[in-house]
Amino acid sequence: MSDETINELILRRHEKLKEFRDKGMDPYGEKYPAAHQAAEILNDFEALDGKEVSISGRLMTKRGHGKAGFANIQDDTGQIQVYARLDDLGKDNYECYQLLDIGDIIGVQGSVFKTRKGEVTVAIKDFRLLSKALRPLPEKWHGLKDVDLRYRQRYMDLIVNPEVKKVFILRSKIIQAMRDYLNERDFLEVETPMMHTVTGGADARPFITHHNTLDIDLYLRIATELHLKRLLVGGYNKIYELGKVFRNEGISTRHNPEFTSLEVYQANTDYFDMMSLTEEMIHKISRQIFGSSSITYQGEEMDLTPPWPRLTMLEAVKKYADVDFSTIITDEDSREVAQKMNLEIDKKATRGEIINLIFEEYVEKHLGQPIFILDYPIEVSPLAKRKKEDPGFTYRFEAFMACSEIANAFTELIDPVDQKERFTKQAEKRAAGDEEAHMMDEDFVTALEYGMPPAGGLGIGIDRLIMLFTDSPSIRDVLLFPTMRPRD
């Protein structure tokens, strides 16, 4: 539809708006006592045949001229056909009915019957205009190539693409199932601040805002981790938080600056316990909501049945990148390997940093099936406990599915001296220009000095998990209102 055509249609709808008012009908009416829904009438036809019903919804199609016509009304359960006839409505009401446009929201009262073609229909005896739509729905919206417009005008997307609405219904059910899983195991849901004076808990660049009264800069949280660990210090044993976090980073099919995370902490556990929790929870959600232990994502079937395979990062790098770091010990030798592999590295890059880089560049793309990658280098794990048998690595895992990280977990670092040393190194990296490095969090170190019990902690990227469960190729498909650059 051209802009000129749209403007003409909008003008005509404004004229109809005036006609409704001239006829004494409020085009933006009061609440309507709808006692039924479309799906209910369709599913319970035998019980409702010939009986009076009342429904409300959006007019999606309208056909027929003269003294009778059919239309389809859509509510949040689906669409149902309605039948309007001059003899049933009377002259004045039927004239008002004929003024209706596709997109208008109406309330309908009438009796249920089946047409000759066997379609369940409501014969309108009375109707009320509840909201006049002044803009027409777009033509050929189904299969629309301009996905940018779908994301910008999600309200329109939800109106005309029922499958989109189903994705977000599933999102709500999945999140509720996660809460149920944790609540049934006596985890307590808590809330921590979204604005921090010191940013930490992840390697990410924060958003910065300013509090006028206190005259201080504050950071939107990049993770909930450090506040949740403070609660373990305070005596809570099993806690979780499900909420928004913010990272001032790039936008892609798997990244949005604002996203939802689940973080879970339990005293007297370790990262093996968190592995069990992760695979069991995800498997149970799949069984509960989809009735299967397997899901299909972009054509590839994935079996979620525990236990999932486990590889250390060194094993994965050897398997997929053909580099054996058990024989490459020094930073200098590691840098030589990276140069031969044409990787861009800092001249002071350490062995651990290079192992992680090779993993990201050469290994992640092979991790299509559910798998845990264990034991990350200490340089990229400043909050995880170091391994006793190999202090250059930590008790940390990430879970991967569809070549994407969906979960990150540690046996938590609870040694305040070690933690402060790692914060110091991170602060040095930050001072040298690494905006994603951790800040020194003195208060968190103080909390650890009071004593934090041994614990396991887990973080799950909810949006990526929803992508997998709903077979959505982009994170924007599972966010109602993804972050977009404003149009000029």
Quickly list its features.
BirA Bifunctional Protein, domain 2, 16 helices, five-stranded mixed β-barrel, 35% helix, 488 residues, alpha+beta, OB fold (Dihydrolipoamide Acetyltransferase, E2P)
The CATH topology of the largest domain is BirA Bifunctional Protein, domain 2
Task: Describe the sheet with the most strands.
Answer: 8 strands, mixed
**Over the alpha carbons, how many angstroms does the gyration radius reach?**
29 Å
Number of helices: 16
CATH class of the largest domain: Alpha Beta
What's the number of extended β-strand segments? 18
**Global shape:** elongated
Report the mean per-residue pLDDT as an integer: 94
Strand content: 15-25%
Distance between the termini: 21 Å
Category by helix and strand content: alpha+beta
| Count of the domains | 2
Second CATH tier, the architecture of the largest domain:
2-Layer Sandwich
CATH superfamily of the largest domain: Bira Bifunctional Protein, Domain 2
Strand ordering within the main sheet:
6-10-11-18-17-16-15-14
Helicity range:
25-40%
